[in-house]
Amino acid sequence: MPYDPxxxxxxxxxxxxxxxTVRRHALCALVVRRGESPYQGRWAxxxxxVQPKEGLAAAAARELEEETGLRVHExxxxxxxxxxxxxxxxxxxxxxPRMRVVSVAHLxxxxxxxxxxxxxxxxxxxxxxxxxxxSLEQEESREAADPALAFDHHRILADGVERARSKxxxxxLATAFCPPEFTVGELRRVYEAVWGVALDPRNFxxxxxxxxxxxxxxxxxxxxxxxxxxxxxxxxxxxxxxPPMLRPEV
Length: 250
What we know:
Blueprint (H helix, E strand, L loop, with lengths): L10 E13 L2 E9 L8 E2 L2 E3 L6 H13 L14 E8 L9 E10 L12 E8 H10 L13 H18 L13 H12 L5 H10 L4 E8 L7 E6 L15
C-alpha cells in the first residue's frame, strides 16, 4: 500500500535553547520577548522550527544566532568556549497551540557573554537571573507585569538548570563558564552561582587543586580581583571528577 502523507496529522519539530552564563555572580538565562503569536509579548527561550534538511544541532546554532546574534559551535566545549549539548525532548500534545510540536531542547553553557542583539521573531532579548525566571511560575497573576514563560519553557528551563547543577558535580563542565585562564576564586564563584550556595574558600581550593586532571597551573598570576596576586589555572584534561564536587545540602 503506497504511503499517503495526508493520512497523518501535521507534525513539527522545534529546538529550544537553555543558554546559561554567569553574570554579576548570578546564574543567568537568555530569554527573548516573542514578537509573533502565539504568546506574543511573552518571554520565552530562544528557539524555532527545524528546517526540512537541517540537523538538530545545526538548527539550535542557527536559531541562537538569528534571534540573539550569538554563535556557538557543536564541537565547542573547552574552557573559554561555548558548550552545546542536547538536554531532553518535550512532546506533550498540547504544548503548542498551533499544532502538534515536539521540541528537542539544547543546553548551552558559556563564559560571561556580551549583551545579545535581538533578531528574527524576537522583539527583545536579555539575560535574566534564573532565580527570578523560575519564580515567575509561582507568582504569576492577572496583574503581573512580567508573566511566566511561554509554552512549557518554565519546565525546560528548570530541567536545564538542574542538568547544569548536576553536571558540575561530576564533570569539569564548570570551567565552561570561565575564561581560558582563571583563578580558583573565579571558579568558586561559578559553583556558588550555579548551585546558589556559599562555599568555604579554603575547602574549595583544596578540593579543586587536589582533584586529578581538573586544573592545570598556567604559571601566571593576576590581580584583577584586587588584593594579592592570584594563581591562574586552565582546565585540565579530566572529563569526570574523582572524587566528585558534591553539592552542599541546602
